[in-house]
Amino acid sequence: METPYQNHIDKADFDFVYEPAEDSFLLIDALEKDLEYLQLRKPTFCLEVGSGSGVVITALGMALPKALCFSTDINLKACNMTKSTAIRNNVLLDSINMDLATGFVHHKFDVVIFNPPYVVTETNECGGCGIEASWAGGVKGREITDRLLHMIPKILTPNGTFYLLLIEDNIPLEVVQIMSTYNYKSETVITRKVRNEQQLVLKFYR
Amino acid sequence: MKLITHNMLTSKCLKGVLTGYPLAINATDVKVNEVDFNPDFIARIIPKLDWEVLWRAADSLGHSEGLPQVVESNYEANQEFLKTAHKVLLEVEVEEGYLTCPESGRQFPITKGIPNMLLTEAEVQ
Q1: Spans of all domains in chain B
Q2: Where does the record locate the signal sequence feature (chain A) (predicted)?
Q3: What are the sequence ranges of the domains in chain A?
């Protein structure tokens, strides 16, 4: 998978929008590793929740030219940046300023990806709309992730696949258990240690 | 905002709103951007849509010309139909305006082509 061009982005905007980092690229690497599986499923609509700069969904759109991409972010500046990243790389995408995926009709997306705010913080640190929303995850670094988990069965098509980046502090096993109550199977696609952070990408499907 | 996106958006997470669909479109700036035509892709999208909602949205923007109100059975082979659908789904873009919840009247602004669907805590179910 190719890395999208980012030279259209004004570096000063990264004061307001999460700058692509190791976790972003791990998620792209996970999608690349799973590309054959994705191509076989012929996804029509792909969604990235909390798209930030838009590099991940744009990379996916470049790899799946027969899919249409969508992105949401609670931060309007991130929505604008995602849109411009898609345009810069000739990817067809619509960007929506939305909390997670709360404003979509059910069962539309074949692929949903999420690189959540996963840093363990106090509860009152998460829930904002600015750059802090890109990392502050509250208790276990899971408060935002857990809200999305319960929406996944409604957002995904019956054959859809959900890719989620986590760190060990988030207790991935609990996430697997929550998703299994909705009859989702899970796999670890890729893991990587970055400084003191053990990052991994999980995949959920029925 | 493309009309394919409008086809998927709802205000049902507003407190007291049951379906919140379809949202009415009020546009003050509509653009038509050229997008490469891929007939197979359009044919794949059609069954995933609420066609009536698409038609009404296109009509409200003055872009329903040539678009049938009902999808005919053999649409995959009809190049002219697929081209018209392609334009309405992917090329017509609402740049500025707002969406309106059909039940509560709550308005969602569209700025630089991006709908703002954020709700305040008091508005959420």
Answers
A1: 3-123
A2: none
A3: 15-205
Exposed e or buried b for every residue in A12-24, given b needs 16+ CB within 10 A? eebeebbbbeebb
Q: Whole-angstrom Cα distance, residue B23 to residue B101?
A: 5
Domain B3-123 -> CATH class: mainly beta
B1 chain-A contacts, CB cut-off 8 A: 94, 96
Give contacts of A 150-169 with B, CB under 8 A: none
Cross-chain Cβ contact A96/B41 below 8 Å: no
d(CA A200, CA A188): 7
* pLDDT (tens digit per residue) in B48-97: 999 999 999 999 999 999 999 999 999 999 999 999 999 999 999 999 99
Instruction: Give residues 22 to 81 of B whose Cβ lies within 8 Å of A.
Output: 35, 38, 40-41, 44-45, 48
Q: Which residues on chain A are in Cβ contact (under 8 Å) with B91?
A: none
Tell me the CATH number for domain A15-205: 3.40.50.150
